[in-house]
Design a protein that fits this description.
327 residues, alpha+beta, Jelly Rolls, nine-stranded antiparallel β-sheet, EF_Hand_1_Ca_BS
Length: 327
């Protein structure tokens, strides 16, 4: 389309109040309180604290703080995926039992909204996802299309890292935890109008969160769960938060077996425990060969040969998946 015609179409769309087309996939590192993903943080409540996480620095929220980012990366998307790497912690404030952890909010009207929420009960939590939109020209704010999906029987322990993902394909709202479908339901909502995103609280500065948020990713289409962000460090097969000899030991004992995609020592998410998964661990572990050697305190001849292969592999930039390794 010629440039002047494109500009004309965009101008007409703006005058008509239409939502602009969605942008490309956007990843936010939640690691400061001034600018997130290149967008300005326009409001900070309390004192979110920068803390180390397995995924780089993140922000800790203590139940009385949050922030608002002046951007909506899914504006205009009729279908989308919102992912969040976060750790919900045991709460100290009773009022933190229904937090809005990530809240996409448009102007009011039209009051379009998408929220990733939790509900805390004792030492556990369960997820809650919500979406709503109001049709153009609806003057009554109570006339909306909305859906909340929630199930208080699907409990998960606090204090652990999760990928909480919400997808909408134009018909079905779905919520996933670590790539596994938890809940879904049908609803007809409009593409989200432009607006802002609040983190650690509801957009109107209530329903605060206690825990840590490391990353958020916004995609203007529905992703396959196999392509979701992993909720663990690559190579951290025992999910301890550290890539070390224990992960190598788990890979070695699992070698040759099958696994659910991304589970256990399946580092490359192909459902098999093989040499490629050793490569994932090797590339992530500091002093990988030394750790492997230490695991074999008194190597038998076959094990010694394997250690030699590890030493040779460590010098290579990639590992040939067709090679067979006997752990």
């Amino acid at each position: 389309m010629p440039r002047n015609r494109t500009a004309h179409v965009l101008l007409l769309a703006a005058l008509a109040g239409l939502t602009p087309p969605a942008a490309a996939q956007t990843t936010w590192d939640i690691d400061n309180t001034s600018s997130i993903g290149g967008a300005a943080v326009v409001d900070v409540v309390g004192s979110p604290t920068v803390v180390p996480t397995p995924f780089g620095d993140g922000l800790r929220f203590d139940g009385n703080d949050g922030l608002i980012v002046d951007a909506n990366p899914i504006a205009g998307a009729a279908a989308y995926t919102i992912e969040m790497l976060f750790r919900p912690d045991p709460i100290e404030n009773v009022s933190s039992n229904q937090p809005r952890v990530l809240h996409v909010q448009s102007a009011i009207p039209p009051d379009h909204r998408v929220t990733l929420e939790t509900r805390v009960t004792g030492d556990n939590w369960y997820l809650d996802a919500f979406v709503r939109s109001q049709r153009p020209g609806q003057s009554n704010p109570s006339v909306v299309n909305s859906l909340a999906i929630i199930d208080d029987t699907k409990l998960h322990p606090l204090g652990e890292w999760y990928n909480f993902t919400v997808t909408y394909d134009g018909q079905t709202l779905a919520a996933y935890l670590n790539g596994q479908l938890e809940l879904e339901g049908d609803v007809d909502v409009l593409a989200t109008a432009d607006g802002q995103v609040s983190l650690g609280m509801r957009h109107n500065k209530v329903n605060f969160f206690e825990g840590v948020i490391a990353k958020a990713r916004f995609t203007p289409q529905v992703l396959d769960p196999a392509d979701f962000l992993p909720a663990y460090v690559p190579g951290d097969y025992d999910r301890s938060g550290v890539v070390d000899a224990a992960d190598y030991a788990l890979w070695r004992t699992s070698y040759g077996g099958a696994a659910a995609l991304g589970e256990g020592a399946d580092g490359n998410r192909d459902g098999r425990i093989d040499a490629a998964d050793y490569t994932v661990w090797r590339d992530a572990a500091p002093q990988a060969v030394e750790l492997a050697n230490a695991h074999h305190a008194v190597p038998e001849p076959s094990a010694a040969a394997f250690v030699l292969l590890l030493a040779l592999a460590a010098r290579r930039p990639t590992f040939d998946r067709s090679q067979h390794i006997d752990p």
